[in-house]
Amino acid sequence: MPTQSPEIQAFATGFPITLMHVGVTVLILIAAAGLYILLTPHKEITLIREGNTAAALSLAGVLVGLALPLSVSMKASTNVIELGLWGVATVVVQLLIFRLVDVILRGLPKRIQEGEISAAALLVGAKLATALIVAAAVSA
Questions:
Q1: Residue 55 CB-density burial (10 A; 0-12 exposed, 13-18 middle, 19+ buried)
Q2: In the list 16, 35, 110, 134, which could disulfide-bond 69, CB 3.0-4.6 Å?
Q3: Which pLDDT score, from 0 to 100, does residue 3 have?
Q4: How far apart are CA 80 and CA 7, in angstroms?
């Protein structure tokens, strides 16, 4: 039986680990997004189903805002346990900061419920800015 090339062997060894890291990270993202949806005063999924573009934009910003630090956590981690710890830590920080942004920019949930795109855009900008800061902190 011919020996496999080193590239094939590296792929065969690394791919399952990659899938596990992606799976853990996606599960953390889904759990964090679900928790965020439960914590918000407005029902984003219902609003989105009703065609509210501002709610869709806001939730999309949350997803990207959560994914940015998670992606850096994946890069900074050496194993799945470390990934889980960093992932959960970044999500907790992000959710606290997101809540603080919601408090500081009070009135935005109501404006998003009313479909105001400018309110959603401001919220997305604030959440992405904090996501970049948290991601940079993890990589420092």
A1: buried
A2: 134
A3: 63
A4: 23
**Given CA atoms 51, 53, 54, 59 in this order, what sign does their dihedral have?**
positive
Q: What pTM value is reported for the model? A: 0.85
Among 108, 131, 88, which residue's Cα sits nearest to residue 42? 108
Q: CA-based angle 130:32:109, to the nearest 5?
A: 65
Per-residue model confidence as pLDDT tens digits over 95-139: 888 778 778 877 888 889 999 999 899 889 988 998 999 999 988
66, 91 Cβ separation under 8 angstroms: yes
**Token pair in block for residue 96:** 């606290």
Phi/psi region, residue 51 (left: phi>0; alpha: psi -120 to 50; beta: rest), is left
